[in-house]
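User: Here's a chain of 323 residues. Predict its fold as tokens.
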Amino acid sequence: MEDNKKWFKEAKFGLMIHWGLYALPAGEWKGKRQEMGPEGVSEWLQYHFRIPCREYERLAQAFNPIYFNAEEWVELAEAAGMKYIVMTSKHHDGFAMYDSATDDFNIVKKTPFGRDVIKELADACKKHNMKFGLYYSQELDWHEENGGGYALKEGDEEAKSNDWDFPDDSKKDFSVCFEKKIKPQLKEILTNYGELALIWFDMPHVITPEQSDELYDMVKKYQSNCLINSRIGNGKGDYRSCGDNEIPNESVGDELVEAPTTLNTTWGYKTFDNEWKDADKVREIKKHLNDRGINYLLNVGPDYLGRIPVMAEKILRAVGKNK
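Assistant: Prediction complete.
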């Protein structure tokens, strides 16, 4: 087994972090609240409330997470017994949490905070010998007219594209977004933040096999030991990401498999989601997965000030005390 696959198989427990502009509205918009459960996850707020891009962009003017501390986040992951961290570099809203030269819609250029949180996290992980990976939404991008998720075949799930700002799906061409934004930004995160343990892609819909191949080859070109998850699309990838909150029962043998799950019911921060799994439940799920050879990737959603919610921190520390 190659070294990059060996560490993954042995890691068993990781921290996923969903953080972006959606932490500000935190599940609420103009007198309405998102549903609880998987249909109301806060990082999908722009989509759920069909918020025009120009209006959503205004959130960046108020995004100033003055209590963000990368060292504290890494220390918490260590205390919980986690071996790697996966952070959202760009989610479906198109907002980059790093200093992107490709697109100004990012935390450095559009917010009063003005700091590159990906760099700070990468540096903190390196200091603490914590494996670091980046989530990147390689198809869905609601900030782009040609973002993917449109024109699904009849009988498939509903389209996931921005059809409120850009209603005519027949004029959309994902290859434009792919060349203009996706490829250049992927190169940025692969070349500007040191060694990455993995790239975590998500939500393939209209991406072609050739495009998935191109992204896969790009990752390996710039970081040959960087693992790629199965959500790159079209059967590619080095390891399998299960469905959201899916807890398999089968043993996977030598296959590399990871179960991405939430600590409450949402991925991004939501003020009114208090349906937390307690430490005993987390340990139970971890044992169930690890006994079957599956990594447990447990997500937290920091708030708009850059803080891990108090309950999430208490639970993770309790898990670590009894690991």
